[in-house]
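Dig into what follows:
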Amino acid sequence: MQLRATELVITNAGPALAAQQKPAQFFERFRKQNAASDSPGLGLSIVQSITTFYGFTVAYDYAPDSARHTLRVRFASAVPRP
């Protein structure tokens, strides 16, 4: 995990994505990587709602060569303080 003034980046290794899985779909409610999982598939949908509310952006990326999953939250431009 990396936290900077402009972004939060979380990267971890995990199960490989199947060829038909698209990382952008994981932001849809009730969509999950593994259909057999006990998870309701709401995590990234909630993250996206919160980031949108605050004017941030969120992106999910997957690197197949290393099976690395990365979630990046970019914060809105900081307002200069007086």
